[in-house]
Amino acid sequence: MVNFFTMPRSLLLRCILTLVSSLSVLGDADSAQRDGAPPSKIAIIGAGIGGTATAHFLRQHFGPEVRIDVFENGTVGGRLATVTVNHQEYETGGSIIHSLNLHMQDFVKQLGLKHRRSVAGKTAVFNGEEFILEETDWYLLDLFRLWWHYGISFIRLQMWVEEIMEKFMRIYKYQAHGYAFSSVEELLSSLGGSGFLNMTRRSLSESLLELGVSQRFIDEVIAPIMRVNYGQNISIPAFVGAVSLAGAQANLWSVEGGNKLVCLGLLKLAKANLIQAQVTTISPHTTGETSQYQLNYEGPMEKGWELYDIVVVATPLQDSVGATISFQGFEPELPAVGGSYHHTVASIVHGYLNCSYFGFPDPKVFPFASVLTTDNPELFFNSVGCVCPVNISASFRRKQAQEAGVYKVFSQQRLGKPELKTIFKSYYSVQVTDWQAYPHYGSGQGLPPVVLHDGLYYLNGIEWAGSAMEMSSVAAKNIALLAYHRWNRQLEMIDQKDLMHKIKTEL
């Protein structure tokens, strides 16, 4: 719950000036209801982690009376999804959460969910011919090997990631004090100044080389992590690269029963109405002094339209993902949302790993649970790993390589029989999920807008800074605060500068 603070009288003049300047930035914020009444109906399009978290936060801020409808044409959870193999479920979408992801931690606590028990497993990096980096059972030995092969590059990298994470953690203080941002640029600038903004425009490889990280370390350690996490290479922007590297550290966890349970729980906690339908058009609708949005929708069980005071689009708007929402009747036209999403294939294979392909003729001595790959054009897969089910009993043990196990293979294209026969000696089943999983990160891309129109918000723009469950949760909290403050014309809580100093002063 947000803590609101009463401003001292001495700040009155500054607040008036802030109000005047904010109007030019935020657009027609004065078109919000003038009688102080809360909105009657809010629509959220998309029931992934971003949409369901938005429903939860909007309920917190606007109270119990507002009606919150969540439109979802597919399955609740979006890119948090599972498949079933031999009566056990396995994550096929977003699968790991960092220990510093405070929103996700709070969701799990509020919903009474549990962290899934972790099962140890070693990782190695394969270059197409041999393993060039192997994890052992001894942490100090692993550190010595990193130093021996790459000098102090790994220390420089660790310090860089920790510095970025420390700055990013400021967002939780800002949001706890009720501050919001009208754009992704404003949010990033408040956390890390121009440095964070520059990191969205410069490549990861360029930034790391400037930091003093060796090219060899980038090619043999960093590139495999980018391939498994984002299916892309070291040319991705530095900020999203830092998000990816944070997700490759220790202290990672997942939800017992599957991460999608968070989305289902948040919908219930928000007392939101789930409408299984696809929104086809959004158009402005004005009656007297009241401005609303008309949503037309179609579903297997119902078809119709509704009017809403506030609308949050929590699903990608890019054509590459088959976006079907048409914005009609807006003058001027809404800002364009460009870019495309990256195509990644997740194959869940139940079978026997072909250890000979990795240089281990005897599978009994194959020690690795996960294999990452370098950026070698001859390699047709990004990673392969023996995965654990979403429910782990006390007696569970990870399958050994000589046993039939369940493996997740990430690749750019669907694996044909020749590719499957290369990685696996034999297999019982293959289940394929063809994801438009995350943005295709290119150079020179701008960050999509958060405010599409007064009372109309876009959540997924945050993904172009970094795609992760927590990034979507941060965006959800920001939009809930932004919508609340704009509705109530509390513009002094939006896009404020020098927030760390301001918060210390308030305390």
TrEMBL record:
InterPro entries, per database record: FAD/NAD-bd_sf, Prenylcys_lyase, Prenylcysteine_Oxase1
Q: Locate the Prenylcysteine lyase domain: which residues?
A: 133-496
Q: Looking at the keywords, is Cell cycle present?
A: no
The signal peptide, as residue positions, is 1-22
Keyword field: FAD, Flavoprotein, Glycoprotein, Oxidoreductase, Signal
> Which cofactors does it use?
FAD
Q: Which GO terms are recorded in the biological process aspect for this UniProt protein?
A: prenylated protein catabolic process; prenylcysteine catabolic process
Q: What Pfam family does this protein match (any one)?
A: NAD_binding_8
Q: From the Swiss-Prot or TrEMBL record, what is one GO molecular function term?
A: prenylcysteine oxidase activity
Top-rank lineage group of the source organism: Eukaryota
Instruction: Give the similarity note.
Output: Belongs to the prenylcysteine oxidase family.
Q: What is this protein called?
A: Prenylcysteine lyase domain-containing protein
